[in-house]
Amino acid sequence: MRICRVSVDDDLFFGIIEGEAVVLLAGHPFGELAPEGRVLPLTDVRLVAPVMPTKIIAVARNYADHAKELGNEVPTSPMIFLKPSTSIVGPGDPIRLPWQSERVEHEAELAVIIGRVASDVPEERVPEVVFGYTCANDVSARDLQQTDGQWGRAKGFDTFCPLGPWIETQIDLEDAAVTGMVNGELRQDGVLGDMVRGVPELVSWISSVMTLIPGDVILTGTPAGVGPLVAGDTVSVSIDGIGTLTNPVVDRV
Ligand code: ZN
What we know:
CATH topology of the largest domain: Fumarylacetoacetate hydrolase, domain 2
Bound molecules: zinc ion
Number of strands: 20
Strand content: 35-45%
Number of helices: 5
Order of helices and strands: EEEEEEHEEEEEHEEHHEEEHEEEE
Helix content: 10-25%
Number of domains: 2
C-alpha cells in the first residue's frame, strides 16, 4: 500500500494512492484507515513530506563502503544522531544552502516510518511497529560536521531532510537498490541488503534508547558516493519499490 500526504485547499491530508488517484483519509494512517470521502486525481494535489515526526533518528556509518570513503571505521555498535523535524521538506521543495557552510553534500537513504509507540522492542517484533518506508536525503554540511564535533548544526539546517515522495508499506529490504543522482548523473548506487545493521536490529536498538512515536523517522545510513551540492543542482534519491524523491538546490537568501 502506498500512503501519501497532500495539500488540498490549504489543508493537509493523508491519502492512499490507488492508481492515478488519491483516496483522502480523515485523520492519520497509523491504525484503522478512515476514508474522508473525496477521491482526487493525483495530478490535482500537491505531495508534501509524507510525515511530520516528533523526531528523526539517523544512523551513521551503516554501509561499509561509505564509512571507508570518509576514512571512518564501521562502529562496533550503532552510532546515531538526531535531526530536527524542522529540517524536513517534501518532494520538489528546495534544499537551501546555508551561508555557514562551504560544502553541503547529499546522502541517499532509506527512511523507516514508525507506526506504533515502540519502546524496548525485540528484533522479532519490529515488523509490528514499522509502518513503512520512504526515500530520504540526509543533507549534510560536511565541513561543519568535521569542525563542530557534534553534528547538530551540520545535519540540522532547515531543508536538510527531504522526505518522500510517499510511504510504501512493503518493500524488499535485501535486494532493493538505493541510488543518488545529481543532475541526472548517478553518484550513489547501493543495495539495502548491504547495510551493516538491518532495519530490525536498528529499530530494536534505537527503541532501547528512546521511545518511538507513530510517524517518527529513522534514517538508515547512506552508501558510498556522497558528494557536493551547489546552487542550480537537482538531486534525486530513488529506492526500488518506493519511487524517486527529487529536490532542487538553491542558495539560502
Ligand atoms: Zn546519513
